Every structure is written in structure tokens, then in C-alpha cells.
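<instruction>
Derive C-alpha cells from the sequence
<data>
Labelled lines for chain and fold
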Amino acid sequence: MTADPLAPLDLAFWNIESAGHPMHLAALGVFSARSPSAAAHAADLLAARAAAVPGLRMRIRDTWEPPTLRLRLPLASALRRSLAFGGATREPDPGFDPLDHVRLHPPAADFHATAGRLMGLPLRRARPPWEAHVLPGEDGVSFAVLFKFHHALADGLRALTLAAALMDPMDLPTPRSRPAEHRRGLLPDVREVPGLVRGALADAGRALDIGAAVARSTLDMRSSPALTCAPSGTRRTAGVVVDLDDVHRIRKSAGGTVNDVLIAVVAGALRRWLDERGDGSEGVAPRALIPVSRRRPRTAHPQGNRLSGYLIRLPVGERDPLGRLTQVRTAMDRNKDAGPHRGAGAVALLAEHVPPLGHRLGGPLLGQAARLWFDVLVTSVPLPGFGLKLGGDPLGAVFPLAPLAPGHSLAVAVSTYRGSVHYGLVADGAAVPDLGRLARAVTEEVTTLISACDH
């Protein structure tokens, strides 16, 4: 594999990172263990298989090549070298050793407690930015693996692909054939030029729309101090498992989509949590960033992040659980009608219009501005419809874990796996010592919605 310049959004994630706010996403998988040595065997398997996955051998290297055109190179290559000044490339690590990335830990009594500590530790930037931490269970009948991937290396879908390459499917579906790809030349056809010009003008219009929407989103704010904090550099994690049949039951009764229900559950859980801890939920409507994948097959940056997003107000202050769901559904429908390329949630698209040096110089400032843009991240991470196992031991649960933005105390990620919905909660360890209370509130909100639907 050859060096590949980081796509603009990948470069933004690479430069936003700081020691107190590592930019890795993760997944905590919990496996049933058939023997006391299952965790050690899993660690050996992960190390052996990682060496054969090309994407896991890739490191990220900063580039400071002077911005000069080299006439001996083809024009396209010369331009790429010129524009890459101050950027970074993804390239094979000649000294790659999987044992630097796969680590077997002592037995853990609480997988989430250990995962929280590990989530607060940045990945080593000089190596391929990923790790797999194998955690044997003290009970002897389970073990967990915490997969960590830097957001510059992978978005949620790419991270899933890399992690799944290290495991075994239990019931792999029949693959579908890929449609024929339309071949394109290196230069556009003359007939395409008017369309390209219109596209450039549309991009400029979208950028103005996004900027105006961001400015409007900061007006008439009513968040909660519980969702913001001075960074402590520590993390806590918690996980909640919800029956997918219960979610479908709510959806069929109240309307909307599965995603609408899952977001409404977050709103209701936040309401309970704020009231129980004494912060109060009256009139609270925090801005939730809902990432939207723009990934398509065979894109220009198949390994890079392809994200936009929706920004909605979570109706935490609404007392009626079905009223909260209705408000979430209305807000999401409005965002979908506008599309993922406009609105305050689409700020990620602006990264494509910033030169690499701008990302490097402005990254720290952009990270600090996250608190002005949104209050809490609520993201959905896709998982395969088939089961996975590792060394013969089945994966029973998997909790996605999102990175925490500077100034934020909480991030929520959701995945569906084999008939269950898994909520992964990540919080600043000092700001949210009662994360377990919020986890219980998620379960209670599902029960409340079912009861409201039945009456």
C-alpha cells in the first residue's frame, strides 16, 4: 500500500486532538468464554490476524513538504504535493508490530470501569492509531475486547470493517454482486464543465447556509450546566441493552422511525437524570448533533470519514413521553427534508474547503468551539446483521463509544446487534460521577414509552 493524503475531515480530526481530549472512537465487545484461557487465546488471535489486515498497518505521518511545483512530475501529482503542505498522509508503517497494539490485561471485575480508564488515554500518534485491549472477566465465563480507533483512521463504519476483519462470522449471509462501476477519465468531459461550475456555486451557497444556521443555533439557547464541563482528562463509560422488539413496539404505536425512538429515549433519560441529580429539566432543550454518513462505495477516500450531520433540539423539558417522541420525529423529518448538506449540523462539510495548513493551525481553536456548536453527541454506529465470534467464543454484546468533544461532559452512541439495542455512554469522569444513574434512566424511559403507548 502506498501513501495516501488524508481527506479534509480526517485531517481535521487529527489536528483537533489534544492530550485532554483524545479523538478516538471505540467499541467494547463482551464475549462468552468457554474456558479460563479464552481471553489469552483471543489476544493471540487478534495479534496474529492484525498483521494480515492492511488497514491496521497504516500510520499517519505529518507532511511539511515545501509548496513548490515539480515540473518533472505529472501536473496532477505536482498539484497534490503542493496542496499537501501542512497536511498528513496515511502510509504503511515499516516497523509495524501487532504486539504494540494488542494488549492482554489482568482480570477485570467491571469491564466498563476499565474501559473508561482506557478511553482517557490517547493513542500513540507515531504508530498506526488503533489498539485492542483484551480484558478477562473475573467470573471466568466472559471476557471483553475494547477496540480503539483514531477518528482520522476510521469513522464508525470503517472501524467496524477493521474490527470485524479480526473476528469470525457465525452466520455470514450470501454476498451480493457489486454493480458495474462507471469509468471516468482523469479530466472531465467538456460537456460536464457547466455542471461542475454549478456545483462549485452550489458548494459556496451551502457553506453560507451552514454558517448562517450555526449562528442561528446559538440564539435562544437553553442547555444544562450538567452537559458542559472543564475537561478533567478522565473518562467513564456505561452500557445499556434494550430489546429491539420493544423499540419496534413503540415505533408501530407512536409512529416515526427506529432512530426517532432511540433519540427520544435519550431525551427522556436526560430529563430523568437532570431531575434526579437536582439540576432540573424545566425548559431544557440541548442541541444534539446527529452524525449522518455520506459514505458511498468506491469513493475518492474509501478509508476516510464521509460525514455530515443534523442538529436538533432534544425536548428534555417536555413532560409527556409521547410528546417528546413527536417533537423528535418532527425535527428529524425537517432535517431529512432539507438534506444532510445544509443546516448547522453539516459543519463537517466545511472541512472540505479548508487547506491542510488551515486545519493544522485552526484545529485547536475548532475543537474549543464544539461547545458553541452543539451540547451532546448522539450517534448511531452500524453493526452487521450476522453474529460474530472470536476463537470460537461468541460476541454477546457490543457497546459503541464515541469521542468526547472539548467542553462536553457526555456523548451517546447506539448500535443494534442481534435483536438488541446497545447504548454506549461516554462521560467526563469528574463531571459525571453518576453515569450509572443515567444508564438506568435509559432503561426506565423505554418502559415509560411502552406504558404510554399501551394507554
